[in-house]
Design brief:
The structure is a single chain. By secondary structure, the protein is of the alpha+beta class. It contains 8 helices and 14 strands. Helices cover 37% and strands 25% of the residues. It has a 6-stranded antiparallel β-sheet. Strands 4, 5, 6, 9, 10 and 13 form a 6-stranded antiparallel β-sheet that branches. It has a two-stranded antiparallel sheet with strand order 7-14. A hairpin with a 2-residue loop joins strand 11 and strand 12. The radius of gyration is 21 Å and the shape is globular.
Length: 306
Amino acid sequence: MSMQSRYQTVLRAIVFALFLLASAAASAQVTVSIVGNQGLAHISLTDGVSTYVADVTISFDSPANLTVAELNLTASLVNPADPALLTRLSNCSPACFVDPAFPMLVTVEPLTLPQMFMSGFDPNEATTGNLDFRNTYQFELHTANIDCTADPQGNCPTTPYRLFKAPVGGSFKDITTDVLKGSVRARGRGGSFSEFLIVEDVRASSTVEQGKANDLQGRIQSASIPVLLQSNLLSELASVQASVSLLNYAAAIANLEQLIADIEGNAGTAIANAWSSDHTLINDAGEMLSLARTLRYTLVRLQNGN
């Protein structure tokens, strides 16, 4: 090993150790680990009166550079009555609100570390050290602070709890793909990160469905994809909505599954499907798949009369 390579190795170790020490001091109640392709976190926060606990599982299909430092997962408590928070839920308020029994905000904002982990000395360095993944991740937030009534399969079909996601400081939107007993185990998918909340959403499912369909339509229209493919995806989504208008939810779900299959089949070729913490990549496939899968969740609720 050259002197420059040894220097860079030592420098990386020092910087990484300092980062972990700072993280431990700032997030002593958040324990994060990496197991295979999963990021795992156990969270315990107190407001001096009550303790709020949660387990977070983030599952990736094909991550690179997945480390505790890179994931940068933190948690904090919010005030459900905070006007700033209510503004961030304004697209569905007053029918959306945070339950005071579980006012926890989880933030996942992977770091950009090229200067920290790349010296420029070694021409054989092949990676920036930034977290990368393809398509989507599954985010699961499990807490015993709130509960739901489950069916024999463990689903909670009548619960109002949903998993919401927002860019840091931005508007929250429903990304739910499952709500399971345990006491509440909410899941969703994403093609990018930032902040996550469990929200009570008492809107009618038909209202939620229309909003999610509009979001998916807008995301398809903004994606940098071939015109013919874009037209086909929009046509399939129009078929979903036509079936919904006839209350034929089985057909709507079948049409949506075809749309999902077409996105997945073109991901990585006609549709960009990579995300990196340096924010140089636009994950069109991951974002569209996330929106399509949460739309499917709502269609299933409508099919089941919820």
